Amino acid sequence: MEEKIIEYAPIIVCAVIFLIQQHLLVSPEQLEKKHREILESIERKYVTWSSFRDLKAQFTDIQSKIDKIYDVIMSGRE
Fold first, then answer.
1. What is the pLDDT of residues 20-60, one digit of tens each?
2. Span between the terminal Cα atoms of the chain, in Å
3. Among the listed residues 28, 51, 50, 31, the one whose alpha carbon sits nearest the alpha carbon of residue 39
């Protein structure tokens, strides 16, 4: 078994070096940095779910107020 590992060691070393050069293997620090970059990009481009719900509630409130104003106007015409 050990002889097989020694036999394939140069190939394994070359494969690992290739993967590192092509940035296919990353360190946890690099992964964390990229994760933070992605989260910042998402925060700039998209709205959060809680903000969306708040805005939707405000639209519902505005709609109900508009309906009340419409009812008052329509009842005044009769």
1. 888 888 889 989 999 999 999 998 999 889 999 999 999 99
2. 98
3. 31
Could you tell me which residue, 75 or 77, shows the higher pLDDT? 75
Give me the residue label for tokens 């719900």: 53
3-state secondary structure 19-45: HHHCCCCCCHHHHHHHHHHHHHHHHHH
Distance, CA of 25 to CA of 28 (rounded, Å): 10
pTM score, two decimals?
Answer: 0.46
Instruction: Compute φ and ψ for 27, nearest 5 degrees.
Output: -85, 160
Q: d(Cα 45, Cα 61) in Å, to the nearest integer?
A: 26
Rounded Cα gap, residues 74 and 66, in angstroms: 12
Q: For 12-23, what is each residue's pLDDT tens digit?
A: 999 989 988 888
